[in-house]
């Protein structure tokens, strides 16, 4: 007992100093928590494989000294799944987190993921660029789509939308219903407009045979009642009918019709007629 009480004032002062130092250190480095988002990385897959159905990112909540949860100190924090040994098919894996020393993980969402591994494949897609007022020619006209097998098999074409006077158009792969397949990688992922022309529309108009020129007589004529043409919508709007010339040939015969079309208008499919014509003296 005497040894315990020996030099008691000095011992009490040392204990008090230690307590004060601990409190000071605690106040200077308070323990706190912080939430952050990190992309979910995939490790261990072969180059021709891809994980399908994984979340793009995870939510973490960390605890540690406030100075360790600020700014660039959190740069080393990463989240990943290790798929070493998975060749194809479904899998379930725990999400792993890399943390700096002195920082602990409080919560992780999701902590476990379920998805599947597929082979990477490629497919050639036709390019189509929409414009509300023009018909466009683009280059290149074909692009390569690359991605998981399940998406590549759905890919139908690569589409883009021409806006303003821009000559470069960004592309997106779509399925046959026009739904975007944004996870597919297109190479190249944009095209250049090389030619612009008026947007063509189609109309079906009555077909009429012109009177025979002097010196000719049409004894019989059989031709379609109408013809389908395409061209500038402004021109087509004012057309009421399409006229055809009488073929100048004697006898009974079948021949393609020579149509009188305004500039910028063309027939969609060729038209033929059956005639019996004679020469008048």
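^ Assign residues to that structure.
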């Amino acid at each position: 007992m005497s040894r315990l009480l020996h030099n008691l004032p000095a011992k009490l002062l040392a204990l008090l100093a230690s307590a004060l130092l601990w409190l000071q250190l605690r106040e200077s480095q308070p323990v706190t928590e912080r939430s952050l988002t990190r992309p979910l990385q995939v490790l261990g897959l072969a180059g021709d494989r891809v994980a399908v159905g994984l979340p793009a990112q995870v939510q973490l909540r960390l605890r540690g000294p406030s100075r360790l949860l600020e700014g660039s100190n959190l740069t080393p924090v990463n989240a990943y799944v290790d798929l070493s040994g998975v060749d194809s098919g479904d899998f379930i894996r725990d999400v792993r987190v890399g943390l700096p020393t002195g920082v602990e993980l409080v919560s992780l969402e999701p902590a476990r993921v379920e998805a599947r591994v597929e082979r990477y494949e490629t497919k050639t897609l036709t390019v189509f660029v929409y414009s509300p007022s023009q018909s466009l020619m683009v280059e290149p006209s074909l692009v390569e789509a690359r991605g998981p097998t399940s998406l590549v098999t759905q890919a139908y074409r690569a589409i883009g939308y021409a806006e303003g006077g821009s000559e470069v158009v960004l592309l997106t792969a779509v399925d046959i219903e026009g739904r975007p397949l944004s996870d597919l990688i297109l190479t190249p992922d944009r095209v250049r407009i090389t030619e612009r022309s008026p947007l063509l529309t189609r109309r079906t108009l009555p077909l009429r045979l012109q009177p025979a020129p002097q010196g000719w007589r049409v004894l019989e004529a059989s031709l379609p009642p109408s013809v389908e043409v395409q061209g500038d919508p402004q021109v087509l709007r004012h057309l009421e009918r399409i006229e055809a010339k009488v073929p100048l040939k004697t006898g009974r015969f079948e021949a393609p019709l020579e149509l009188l079309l305004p500039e910028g208008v063309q027939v969609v499919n060729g038209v033929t007629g059956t005639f019996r014509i004679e020469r008048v003296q």
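The longest strand covers residues 112-130.
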